[in-house]
């Protein structure tokens, strides 16, 4: 007999934990050029849990602004800045995911968000009632280290800003080269 979560057991008077079935989708953060290993692991998790997969790209060059009529609109941080072709970037990511995930049997969708990646993913996870958030590590290199110093790790920010588990998929580790150069 399954007891509802936190129901008091008459024999002991203590509350018994009863695990609940995971039904919320897996939410995966996507960045341009990200190795498909992240999508593959997220799809395997969604498949194993028999839930959907939401793939989300966050455009960091825009922010959310509430209009007087209550609508929320994504606006560019620098309206005079170089147009990075966000629609083209999103379409390219979606096409790559389509190639990687179509035919796998996993129900998946793609969405483009705006603003700070951790906040945007956290908001989407809350509204979709996601079971877990999946992100990949950054490729190592000077640019990635500099960006991490400036904005921090999305995974770390996620773990501090919401209550869902965060699964970090390690990407190819930086190869250690012997001192002799071989």
Description:
33% of the residues lie in helices and 21% in strands. It is an alpha/beta fold and 182 residues long. The protein has a single domain, classed as 3-Layer(aba) Sandwich (Rossmann fold). Strands 5-2-1-6-7 form a five-stranded parallel beta sheet, sandwiched between helices. A two-stranded antiparallel ribbon has the order 3-4. Strand 3 (62-66) and strand 4 form a beta hairpin. Helix 3 packs across helix 5. The protein is globular. The N and C termini lie far apart (64 Å). The relative contact order is 0.18. The model is unreliable at 146-151 (pLDDT under 50).
CATH topology-level fold name: Rossmann fold
Name of the CATH homologous superfamily: HUPs
Q: Measured on Cα atoms, how large is the radius of gyration?
A: 20 Å
Approximately what portion of the residues adopt beta-strand conformation?
15-25%
Strands, helices and their partners?
Elements: E1 26-30, H1 36-49, E2 53-59, E3 62-66, E4 72-76, H2 86-101, E5 108-114, H3 117-128, E6 132-136, H4 142-151, H5 154-161, E7 166-169
Parallel strand pairs: 1-2, 1-6, 2-5, 6-7
Antiparallel strand pairs: 3-4
Helix pairs in contact: 3-5
Give a summary of the structure in a few sentences.
This protein has 182 residues and is α/β, with parallel strands linked by helices. The protein has 5 helices and 7 strands. Strand 1, helix 1 (36-49) and strand 2 (53-59) form a beta-alpha-beta unit.
């Amino acid at each position: 007999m399954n007891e509802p979560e936190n129901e008091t057991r008459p024999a002991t008077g203590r509350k018994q934990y009863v695990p609940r079935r995971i039904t919320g989708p897996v939410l995966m953060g996507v960045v341009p050029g990200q190795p498909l290993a992240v999508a593959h692991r997220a799809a395997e998790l969604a498949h194993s849990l028999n839930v959907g997969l939401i793939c989300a790209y966050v455009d960091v060059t825009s922010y959310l602004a509430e209009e007087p009529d209550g609508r929320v609109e994504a606006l560019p941080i620098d309206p005079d800045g170089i147009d990075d072709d966000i629609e083209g970037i999103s379409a390219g990511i979606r096409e790559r995911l389509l190639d990687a995930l179509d035919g796998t049997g996993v129900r998946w969708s793609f969405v483009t968000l705006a603003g700070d990646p951790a906040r945007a993913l956290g908001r989407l996870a809350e509204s979709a009632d996601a079971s877990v958030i999946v992100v990949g590590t950054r490729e190592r290199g000077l640019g990635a280290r500099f960006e991490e110093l400036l904005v921090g790790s999305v995974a770390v920010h996620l773990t501090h800003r919401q209550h869902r588990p965060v699964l970090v998929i390690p990407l190819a580790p930086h190869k250690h080269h012997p001192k002799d150069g071989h």
